[in-house]
Amino acid sequence: MSTVFDKIVSLCKRKGFIFQSSEIYGGLGAVYDYGPLGVELKRNVKESWWQAMVYQHDNIEGIETAILMHPTTWKASGHVDAFNDPLIDDKASKRRYRADQLIEDYIEKLRKKGKDDPAEALHARFVEALHADDMPKALHQIIIDEEIRAPDSGAFDWTEVRQFNLMFETHVGPLAGGDNTIYLRPETAQGSYVNFHNVQQTARQQIPFGIAQIGKAFRNEIVARQFIFRTREFEQMEMQYFVKPGTQKDAFEAWREKRMQWHLDNGVRPEKLRWHEHDKLAHYADAAFDIQYEFPFGWQEVEGVHSRTDFDLSRHQEYSGKKMEYFDPQTQERYIPYVVETAAGLDRTILVLLSDAYREEEVEGEPRVVMGFHPKIAPIKAAVFPLVKKAGMPEIAHAVEEDLRRHAKVFYDERGSIGKRYRRMDEAGTPYCITIDGDTLDDGTVTVRDRDTLEQIRIPKDNVVAFVQDKVRDGKPRS
Ligand code: GAP
Question: Is the whole model's pTM more than 0.70, yes or no?
Answer without folding.
Answer: yes
